[in-house]
Design goal:
Blueprint: E1 11-14, H1 21-32, E2 48-52, E3 56-61, H2 64-67, H3 69-86, E4 96-100, E5 105-109, E6 117-122, E7 135-138, H4 154-157, E8 158-161, E9 168-172, E10 177-179, E11 192-199
Antiparallel strand pairs: 1-9, 2-3, 3-4, 3-5, 4-11, 5-10, 6-9, 6-11, 7-8, 7-10
Organism: Roseiarcus fermentans
Protein name: 2-oxoglutarate-Fe(II)-dependent oxygenase superfamily protein
């Protein structure tokens, strides 16, 4: 069984994380921006439509197929440097690139067997182009502390992190979390675009 470290925090937000985020975003826009350039045998045939009933529905791929290996390696080096100085040399695992368009979501789940922390790095240019798509992590004790009696909605049960550009969100992999359904766009250039992975 994988030996995991004990997390030292529940959630952490790091804005302006990667100096090359604009370059990575430009690569994505160049890759996806001209539909007429997409051919049967071309590089655009790389997206996995990952559907797991009642749990996941979104597009994912190896980000190197979209951004190029050099940029992904640079992102991982930035993450490793952060881990060395801030997280006691935790190991950063290779990311997925995830793309959420209209109707796509993560239902409530956890990733307790994947790592100590999950990371979500946003390359989403404008969160006002859709609703939903936030990274939502269960608040401490929220499912046990039911008194005093009061009405609540999902914002009261979860810490909510909109997918703002160049923002890194870290959270304890054991915690229930979700991505609410994205509504409002089928345009990949306007969807929720993130690099996601785990730290051990």
């Amino acid at each position: 069984m994988q030996d995991y470290r004990s997390p030292s925090f529940r959630t952490r937000l790091v804005p302006d994380f990667w100096p090359r985020a604009d370059q990575a975003r430009a690569k994505f826009e160049d890759f996806m921006g001209n539909p007429k350039s997409h051919t049967f045998s071309g590089p655009h045939q790389c997206w996995d439509f990952w559907y797991m009933p009642n749990v996941y529905c979104y597009l994912r791929t190896d980000p190197a197929k979209v951004l190029g290996r050099e940029l992904v390696d640079d992102f991982l080096q930035r993450l490793r440097d952060f881990c060395a100085t801030e997280l006691q040399d935790m190991t950063a695992l290779h990311p997925w690139m995830s793309l959420h368009l209209n109707g796509m979501r993560h239902e409530v789940h956890n990733d307790s067997c994947n790592g100590t922390y999950a990371y979500v790095f946003s390359l989403t240019r404008d969160v006002d182009r859709f609703t939903g798509g936030e990274t939502c992590v269960a608040r401490s004790g929220v499912f046990e502390e039911l008194e005093p009696r009061r009405n609540n909605a999902w914002h009261g049960f979860f810490e909510v992190f909109p997918a703002r550009f160049n923002q890194l969100v870290l959270f304890d992999d054991r915690l229930p979390h979700m991505v609410p359904v994205v509504q409002g766009t089928m345009n990949p250039l306007a969807g929720r675009l993130c690099l996601t992975g785990h730290l051990r």
